[in-house]
Amino acid sequence: MINIQHIGISGDTIGSSARLNHLEESLAQFAGLGFTMVEIDPTPFSLVVNGEIRRPQLANFAAVLRNFALRYSVHGLSRLNLAYDPRHELCRQIMRGQIEICRVIGASRLVYHSGLQALDLAHYGVQRSLLSDEELAAGAQQEIAAFRALAPLAVEAGVIIGMENGDSHQWEHNLMAQFGRPRAELAKHHARLRIGPIARQLEAINHPNVALTLDIAHLHIAAYDLGFDYLAAVREAAPWVKHLHANDNFGRLDWGFDTEHDRWAFGEADIHLPPGWGSIPYAEVFACLPDYEGDLILEIKPDFQDYLREGLETMRQILQAMH
Predict the structure, then answer these.
(1) What angle do helix axes 20-33 and 308-321 make, rounded to 10 degrees?
(2) Where are the domains of the chain?
(3) CB of 119 within 8 A of CB of 126?
(4) To the nearest whole percent, how much of the chain has pLDDT over 90?
């Protein structure tokens, strides 16, 4: 039976302010609501600049976190890509910096968005074509080699790196159509939508400090969009999972609109609702993860701050009902 040790909250819930006094107020709020863990995104706090750690900023950041009896995980830079960013050595350097942040603050997990998404460079006009099959395969191998080299640093820092699965977006389908590719090819260029490609990388890396962060809500969107069996995918992920992200949605692809409030009314995209507000069958999901022992992070958007306690209680009730 699944064993959740700590239910945490994503620090993104505090909003976009990177002032340390605001961080301190938010951590106090989270602790007061009953959360025992917070997943921190350090990127707004200028801790890594041009690939280098800024030690004074890191010391001040760590001093704030030490004021609270909370456990911490770190959500790394979302755009970091060790597979397909051509500035590969800089990306490795940034990842080394993130591992060092984890060491300094005592974070147990470092979340890394799997690099198996090869569409961003074309989307933003950095390149004018999609990658070939050979380039896609070479990038996946490059990421494997990077994590084989980074794993010993993770051991020294006492952190497990969790490669996170992704969700699909309307702009990705539009981009595939723009290049004359069939809809079904999205899963080749955005391979982290499925668990299998990440699992094959983890098998090749073969290190206990590099694992899977299963984003339950991302997988829900991807399963409905690509038409694969959602719970079967959770079972496929189970042997590799060492960290969990959770929120709620309705499994609907967005229609290209970015305004969160508009998306709520249509129940579209990964809108990061409190658990229980959407259609993710959490009891069935958790039943597919019977051997998981670890933490669970609620990734709830800032506009739902008034319902954080409700989200925490709902998740506790779901887990208690399973025992």
Answers:
(1) 40
(2) 3-321
(3) no
(4) 92
Beta carbons within 10 angstroms of residue 129's beta carbon: 9
Instruction: Determine the Cα–Cα distance for residues 51 and 124; give it in Å rounded to an integer.
Output: 22
Instruction: Name the CA radius of gyration of the chain, rounded.
Output: 19
The CATH number for 3-321, chosen from 3.20.20.150, 3.30.497.10, 3.40.1360.10, 1.10.10.10, is 3.20.20.150
The answer to whether the beta carbons of residues 222 and 253 sit under 8 Å apart is no
pLDDT per position as a tens digit, 23-60: 999 999 999 999 999 999 999 999 999 999 999 999 99
Q: Parallel, antiparallel, or unpaired: how do β-strands 3-10 and 37-40 relate?
A: parallel
- For residue 78, count other CB atoms closer than 10 A to its CB: 12
Question: φ and ψ at 43, to 5 degrees?
Answer: -60, -35
162-219 pLDDT per residue, tens: 999 999 999 999 999 999 999 999 999 999 999 999 999 999 999 999 999 999 999 9
